[in-house]
Amino acid sequence: MLDDTDRRILRQTQADPDAPHVTLADRAGVTPATFARRLSAMERAGVVQGREAQIDWAALGYTVEVSLRITLDKTAPLAFETFLNAARQIPEVLELQTFVGSVDARISLVARDLAHYQVLYRDHILRLPHIDDIEALMHVARIKDTQALAL
Predict the structure, then answer these.
(1) Which of 56, 100, 124, 151 is at 20 to 30 A from 9, Cα to Cα?
(2) What's the whole-model pTM score?
(3) CATH number of the domain at 57-138, please?
C-alpha cells in the first residue's frame, strides 16, 4: 500500500513529470535520495508505468478525431481476438477498448481531414472482421483529458 509520502511523490510527479527529481523531491518534502528510491519502488511495483510524450495530433496535421463504437458478431468463434488483432494494425488507431454491454469495443482514431477519415473508414474500419454495427462519434472538443487522480 501507498503511504502519505508515496502519495506526495505521486502528486508532484503527476503535476510536473518533466521537472528534475531534485525539484519534485523538494516539493514532496523528501530528500532526493528518498524520492528516487520510492519512485523506483513504485515503478517496479507497476504503480508508475513510465512517462510518455503527449502528442498534439492537430499540430502534426491530424485535425479529425473520431470515436467508433463497435458491436461485434459474438456468434463467430474468436470474434473479439481477431477483431482486436486486426484493429491494432491500423496506424491511426490511438486507443482500443473493450466493454461488457451493448457496445463491445471502442476505437479512437485520428485522421488528417475528413477525406482521409473516409479512406480510413472505407479501406480499414469496414474491413475489420466480425463487425455487426458501428456508430461513429466525431470529436468536437476535449473538455477534460487527464490520467491523474487526486492522491
Answers:
(1) 56
(2) 0.75
(3) 3.30.70.920
